[in-house]
Amino acid sequence: MSSENNDEPTLSPSKKSSNTNTANNNNANNSDSESDVNNEHLIGNVQRVAIVPPNYEGKPKKGHLIFDASFECGNLGRIDYVNDFEYDLFIRPDTCCPRFRCWFLFTVENVKADQRVIFHIVNFSKAKSLYRDGMTPIVKSTSRKRWQRLPTRNVFYYRSPDHRKNYVMSFTFCFDREDDVYQFAYSFPYTYTKLQNYLDNIEQRRLDYVQRRPLVYSVQKRRLDLLTVANPALLAKGRRKKVVIVTARVHPGETPSSYVCQGFIEFIISDNPIAQLLRDNIVFYIVPMLNPDGVFLGNQRCSLLGFDLNRVWNDPSIWAHPEIYGIKTHIMKLNEDADFELDFFIDIHAHSTMMNGFMYGNVYEDANRFEKHSIFPRLLSRNAEDFSINNTTFNRDALKAGTGRRTLGGCLQDSTHCYTLEVSFFSYQTSTTTQAIPYTEELYQQLGRNLARTFLDFYKSNNYVSWSPSCSIMPRLKEDRIKSRLSRQSANMPIVDQDEALLNNEAYNLSTQEFIYPETRNNNEPE
Description:
The chain is α+β, with helices and mostly antiparallel strands. The chain has helices spanning 192-204, 256-268, 273-281, 292-297, 322-336, 367-373, 375-383, 404-411, 441-461, 498-503; strands spanning 10-13, 49-52, 66-68, 78-83, 86-90, 105-109, 115-121, 138-141, 144-149, 155-160, 166-175, 182-185, 210-217, 223-229, 241-248, 282-287, 340-351, 357-361, 393-394, 417-424, 427-428, 437-438, 485-487, 508-510.
């Protein structure tokens, strides 16, 4: 919600196709980028702008909507009044890079009860979108704190002749409570401040196996936090140890990746016996937010300076890409240190056109190395019902040569496995049904927990760790994690503890939602 709700709103009478920019630019988000829609500059977010009919004079009345995006992660560059019921909304492009226009997050207030509107978001930069397959924007309000997806029947995605044949996403909405401030978003927001508060809380617990430090600082001097999770005895100099590196949020608009990463962190620092065993044998390095400036500014893909940070791993600049320069330098030092054996690099993303979780891996000429590289995704598919091995691909596409996965896969030791983990912005399907289950914040975190558990399977398979599960020490899962657990093999198999099933190489479905959406088709795109 806007922190400036008590300020007098800017009165903005506007017409569709008017040359007047209705946005009061937020200086904190200024850039030189320019939208290619109507050739108009969109260099900042709207700041408490009241949209009133043409020729209206005086203070805004109830029902004259006030829009705001002048807050962390906010994105809305302009609003055009069409009529009393319709508004054209323009996404602000990424700073210094007008190509990317996808993420939006804004608030609406000063509504009337039962006021019905149609919002048209008119300048999406992508043609392919899960909006064609049932995905919808999410909404919450001051009196209803949980995000909810809009009904599919209220959302339309189409190519519009009125907007240079650009793709438009239109949705209808009825405001039901006059005193509420409503917030609309492309996906579940996860801000830089939310991450800092989360890491502060972990730090206050004074866990001896968790270390936090800023690896580097961004261009705007935000922290690039590095978490080290391991038994302190394992970190002793001269002791050989295996290393897993997990990163997320290199693309700021891919907010689900932050929830997956948080689920991973929560599990790996927990009292779960599996987590304890992994910490005793593996050093985990985690960078939860690789692009803190882009996240703060509400960009979709780029950093403050307009760089796609997942295309500069080959030769990152210390001044232009300090985040990638810092983490790559850290990784290369580990690679050259005889005390460390770098086993995994996993970079977490979100995907805007495909269902489920899945991975991108690398292709190697050595058949034995390639075979080993395919093991981890298959283990993850057994532990996470939303992970699709069919969507998982291995490639060396030239367009992805500058990604972390491709770059590190080519310069680290041969035993290192480098992957991109993708998760859908929308939903997943299981192997036993064509019904799509929409992701929630909790389900994203569940994928992160399952990712962490899969490392036990991997290290069991190569006899690096051993485990003898005991009923007396196996933790009982919370009620929300054992809902409707069904066997993939038999619907009559009794409900069991998920961790015990994992240790016994059994896989189970977890159904937690009743919302049903149509089956989607898969469309690949660059990571």
